[in-house]
Amino acid sequence: MPRKRPFSAKRKKQQLRDRRERKRGDAPAGPDSGPGSRSESRERGSDVAPAEAGDPAPPPRRHDPGRFRLQLGGPRAEALARRRRRAQEELLELLPETALELDPDTVYGPGLDFPRRPPWSFAMSPEELRVREEAVFSAFLRAVREGQRHNGAEEGGTNGDGDDDGGDVAPFEHNLETWRQLWRVLEMSDVILLIADARHPALNVPPALATHVTRELGKGLILILNKVDLTSPAVATAWSHLLRRRFPTARVVPFTSAPRQPSAPGLQRRQRRGGGWSRAVGPRQLLEACESIVGEEVDLSSWRARLDRAEEAAARGEEEEEEEEQQEEVGDDGDAGDDDADGDGPVAAPRQWERYRHGVLTLGCVGLPNAGKSSVLNALVGRSAVSVSRAPGRTRYFQTHFLTPTVRLCDCPGLVFPSRAPPALQVLAGVYPISQLQEPYSAVGYLAARLPLPPLLQLRPPSAATGWTAWDLCEAWAEKRGYKTAKAARNDVYRAANSILRLAAEGRLRLCLRPPGYAAQKDLWEQHPETAALAALQERGDPGVRGSAPPGEGSTSEEEECDSGEEVEPGEATPPGSTASNPFALLGEDEC
Length: 592
What we know:
Helices cover 35% and strands 6% of the residues. By secondary structure, it is an alpha/beta fold.
């Protein structure tokens, strides 16, 4: 008997994967399922007969765990190596205050669009519609690649791997299933809520989407500046005026699910989002914006009564009781429930969209990942209706919830639109998953050029004393936090870089971009009446106490939690002392 060859764990996993797919009826032609393989010899005695030439094709797999997974792509290995060398050699210089100003035209320039759904009708078969959508999406991707190569040739042969900070098309969503969720939400919604992070509105408001909603679809558009508690009221007011000038038919509403007093810029302590979802600032302004769009066509008195009850309960220090009889959840299969498909009609064109169908106003929440769409929906509902997470891509498919019998909310997964934004800005905005970064040092350098990280993080200067590089910053942070590799016990620079980027994405390092010309008119915006009104609105929403945090908003990781016995920098918000003593406080690390 011949000696058996070694069988690796990788081949074993492939064998088990092939066996599961054969049980589902979709047997792939994998490397371990061919003749002579171990899996083939073990399955030789199976009762399953091989497929004949005339047999129909096996049905597709019913379960695909990666169906709604983020597919943003990334740079090539050569670009990653260049960025790594640049982070180790290039000295960082703190840029002037005007470097924080970002023009939206430089992010979403001309020629950038997003894929649209092709014309369809209810008489089409699912397979026919799927083929048509795949063809349109493939043509869109080819057009983006051709335009990128054309621009690279005109600029003198620049690389198309996204090595430069801008110019080329930044990573965007390549998963057709996620774009299908956006198409469904745009079709079934009466008013679109475009959620934008108040720290980076230039990145979170794609002009192509806003123009498509207002002009082509003819629907109402409300721009929600979410997380206004992470930026100054003057900057939020300046962005609101800029968005109103660019989109005259849209309404701009400031919003936050965790109102608190604006603190000094710099490193902030992690603050739990206390008091429940009823403390949110902006639901009443959103109601007034919807009433201005809807008019008398939909009765929104139930929504106003709900807000009144929530405010009275918050004034008494209580939580509003949930109305379970009004909560309805519709998953991925619920999109067709609103429209009764009629197979006897002609195949010419799809049925026209009916505004305010059955007297119900449908609000669709769309935007980029990690903009806070699910948090806005939870704040409006008043409970944790959908799950939220600090990592982008938590929402995989659209979900609908009834706020009142006449108001329905639809939560859409976040999508990264084609843009020319610097990839480092996408990482700092939380659009790109930090855990999937292969080279995080360039993003740390982008942040260090706009914020004084060494004094904020209290880092020791490097031994060379000639200046800081992005690599030196990460190494000093790893030394301070005690991040070491497992075998050689060297400073874990990669983990330190990820930790700094998470501090920026969570808002503990306040990198807030400003509209063009803000520095020249800074005094004007700080003395603007809307700035004072927004600050007063946040003061009314902040009760000054911190309760239990909603799920996903106040969770802390072991490696990033700051201990109670550490010193506090000037200007930082100091949380109240805990009543329970920590027996391990003496084992804590220095203040992060």
